[in-house]
Amino acid sequence: MSGHVMKGRILRLCQKELRETIRDRRTVMTLLIMPLLLYPLLSMALNRFLLTSGARPSNVFLVGVATEREGELLRSYLDDPKSAPPDSVAKSSGGGIAEFDIRLSEGIDPVDALYANQIDLAVEIKFEEPPQVIITAFRGDGGSQNARRVLVERLQWLRSNFAQQVAKMLAPDYRPPADIVVDEIGQEDEMPLLATIVPLVLVLMTITGAVYPAIDLTAGERERGTMESLMASPVPRFYVLFAKYIAVVIVALLTAMINLLAMFTTLWVSGMMRFLTGDDAFPWIAVLQILGLLVLFSGFFSALLLCLTSFAKSFKEAQAYLIPVMLLALAPGMLSLMPGVELSGPLAIAPLISIVLLARDLLAGVFHPVGALAAIVSTIGYASAALAVASRLFGNDAVTRTSEQSIGSFFHRPKKMTPVPSVESAALMLSLLVPIYFVGSNGLMRFLLIFGDQISLSAKFWLNILTLLLTFGLVPFVAAFLGRHRYRSTFRLQMPPMLSFIGVVLIGMGAWTLAHEAFVFAEAIGIGGLSEERIEEALGQLAAWKQVPPWLLLLTFAVAPAVIEELCFRGFLFSAFLRVMSPARTIMLTAVLFGLFHVFTGNALLIERFIPTTLLGLILGWIAYRTGSVLPGMLMHLVHNGLLEIVARYHEHFQFFGSELDDQAHLPLVWLVVASAIALAGAGIVWASTRESKSTKVVEQTAIQS
């Protein structure tokens, strides 16, 4: 079946699933009717709450007095500079000073006006020696209670400052008991209400919109008895599930967007937008940011809910699965309301928690590149893993109405051996590799930061090798073992033509100059680049590395990465993607993944490494496809890294490698010409040595794809 015909069928499947989902009355209720009714009611309830809780658009309190004489005296008290709190106290309260609008209650006693909710406070002044100020507030009214507290504090500051002035006049040596100095750390501005409330609302919006479509398109199919006919169609099972996923994502997005539009429109029309954003203007920028976040939330929840409902055998069972999930989803959403929780460390890759914190930071105007990238990549990985699980369950014995198996059967190894992993297995492996690699690299950095002084430099190198082995080595191996995939074909361990090894050595000897020029190009267009501090730090590391034996340096930065990374990217992932993708797309995808993993290292975002490592990944991908094996790529990777490490170790012996490298300049033209000629000669040898086996590779690829 051609790719064009298959794409057409997938598109028709998506249209069919979406059309049937939108026709459902429950979807229409969730999508349209609930937002139109819910948010006006919530707006009225919120307005009433704000009126009774004292939250006001400006910090102005209404004070009622019975006579003009009382009002003039009270105004003189408040206008006296001695009634203002010290700067340290005002700063601790947000820096602003409350204002009082003193009004003469005509024809009504101030206390009665307070009962009628016309004012915040009733003040009566008895003109004695000294005058007595009686302040009356309304019990249970937050605004009135707050106004009384502030007015009492202002009058107390007036009395205190007057007393200190008199004390200094009577005793010139008088000093106050203590001077108060207020300072603060952390964020410069207070977290806006928009950034704390909206992430929780996004969770509720997206999960509400995805629940019913996810149940109906999986458990509903089985209850209607249409699962068997659906599985009998000539379309692969994963494409059927993917069409359902697209339908659930679209419905979840539409539901969230309509809810979002209804919420902001209601707040804007009702004049309460300032409580959320601090301004009466419509927050177009914030809305655009939220729309981008909705894609992440909808994609994640749709995949998760489809995965869970694929276990269910009935509509009620699916609801029983999802109700606890909906309740648990609220807990991460509440993290946006908690101060001091940052998008870093394990929280940057925690499911749902990471994107909730990402939403909070974006809406607050704060952006952490490392945490943001970790949150986005890990969320995509979790969604892919959930879809991989759902595709393995959807329509087979584990989910049909006559199933005699349990959820635990999913974790059993398949009985049949397969030559290469499926795309679902690759997605599941990647979703596990992202958090494991993040925790492993950050854990190593944290360990060396704490115990680095107690560990020798050689031991640090061995820890680096161990971390690489436990991530890019162990995770693909375990995935191949659990999936019962043949190791030889999965990791592409076939022996290529011997002449190709000579070619890849030449490519490795010349490709390092291309990597350096790619790095300089990236720095020139503003992608990364090393600061002077980073350059000095790198040179210091190079000087320290001279204490390590050369063989350990090559083992750590050349041999181990060449073997382990190639088995992962040009082995496991390459064979899985080549099963369903063209060679060019497979090479490109594995190269981009290779570049991203090298950018995302430890707690730093080394974006300057993306272009050079992606370029290296393209070369390695071409070698892997052309030779049909991962072994030549290992050798080329080893030569490339080894040559870089040797040159870095002995850079003072190379005249061109002095100040020019420190200034991130281009290499001498003669070096570029010679190195490029060597690399092109090596590529020609690889192409010539594998030309005869080209037809064999085409047959093997066709067999794998079928």
UniProtKB/TrEMBL annotation:
Domain of life of the organism encoding this protein: Bacteria
Pfam families per the UniProt record, alphabetical: ABC2_membrane_2, Rce1-like
Keyword flag Transcription: no
Record-annotated membrane-spanning stretches: 28-51, 193-217, 238-264, 284-308, 320-337, 343-363, 370-394, 426-449, 461-482, 502-530, 551-574, 586-607, 614-635, 669-688
Annotated keywords: Membrane, Transmembrane, Transmembrane helix
Domain CAAX prenyl protease 2/Lysostaphin resistance protein A-like, first and last residues per copy: 549-642
Name the record gives this protein: ABC transporter permease subunit
Protein species of origin: Novipirellula rosea
